[in-house]
Write a structure and sequence with these properties.
Immunoglobulin-like; 159 residues; 47% strand; five-stranded mixed β-sheet; alpha+beta; four-stranded antiparallel β-sheet
Amino acid sequence: MSAAASLLLACALLATACGASIDVQRALQVSDLTTGWYDAGIVNGKNKLVPTVSFRVKNVGPSTVKYVQLNAVFRVIGDQEELGSMFVKGIGGDGLAPGAYTETYVLRSALGYTGEQPRHEMLEHSGFRDAKVEIFAKPGSSQWVKLTEHTVARQLLTR
């Protein structure tokens, strides 16, 4: 077999192994979403709260979905700069079958608010600014795609 034919065969096998790219906006749906402000403990003598989201992902498409990373980006509402972000491997090589749900993911920012007042009072402080979370998915080596966006609820989370 010639080198060109070998290369062509290798490319064809690789393309078949990778499968067709998926439209994660149509195939995946965020469910069981909860947001709030996690009690991150005491930092430099002050109480610290960080924005948090927990959710599961459901495969609403007709095919098994594999190799998808998930990312939560937190921003103060009205600001473009990130308040923080966190990503997880998400769906691995075993895949997520049609109609199936992932485990629950809990993603939180390392950045947030600190204050000397009790944590529940921090959420009511006049200087407190609400935040939002955007959840993105990235299938394989494709670009990040936004799945959903929500305001972070003004509720205290302890886990």
